[in-house]
Design goal:
The protein has about 150 residues and is α+β, with helices and mostly antiparallel strands. It has three helices and seven strands, in the order E-H-H-E-E-E-E-E-E-H.
């Protein structure tokens, strides 16, 4: 499954980079994250709960940032597994300044999903991914505007 899109955030590129490059702040933005630990520079392990239709599961996973060009780009690989199946893939984030107070975030991911969770179908999985991305960017906007998520 391929996922891509873009979102305009209300902050300068350096502020957006600082948010997306801070594991503690980032963990608060991702829906369903229960645990997020640094295991090495640019390498993380975590646990999250995801619900897709009637299939709900807790997944443990690993994320590694493979390429980083501050403050404009990073590429990550990820894998996770739980009783309801597995997920693995790669993704990129690109940040482009739009004036002094906005940043366009472009994202793309190539994701493989397997196990019982695949029974809900591709369309449902895409819908859940979009909802999670919308929730993530809404939380990022709140954080960047100095909302309750700020550390």
């Amino acid at each position: 499954m391929k996922i891509s899109g873009e979102h305009l955030l209300p902050a300068a590129q350096e502020q957006v980079w600082a948010l997306l490059d801070d594991p503690a702040r980032l963990a608060r933005l991702v829906p369903g994250v229960q645990k997020f630990n640094i295991v090495a520079p640019d390498e993380f392990e975590g646990t999250m709960t995801v619900a897709v239709a009637a299939v709900k599961g807790t997944y443990t996973g690993h994320i590694k940032i493979d390429e980083k060009r501050q403050p404009e780009y990073y590429k990550a690989s990820f894998d996770g597994k739980g009783a309801q199946g597995f997920i693995r893939g790669t993704g990129t984030l690109e940040l482009e300044p739009k004036g002094q107070e906005q940043t366009l975030v472009r994202y793309a991911a190539d994701v493989q999903i397997g196990g019982p969770i695949m029974q809900v179908g591709q369309r449902m999985l895409e819908s859940v991914a979009k909802r999670m991305l919308n929730d993530f960017f809404a939380a990022a906007e709140t954080e960047l505007k100095g909302g309750t998520n700020q550390s």
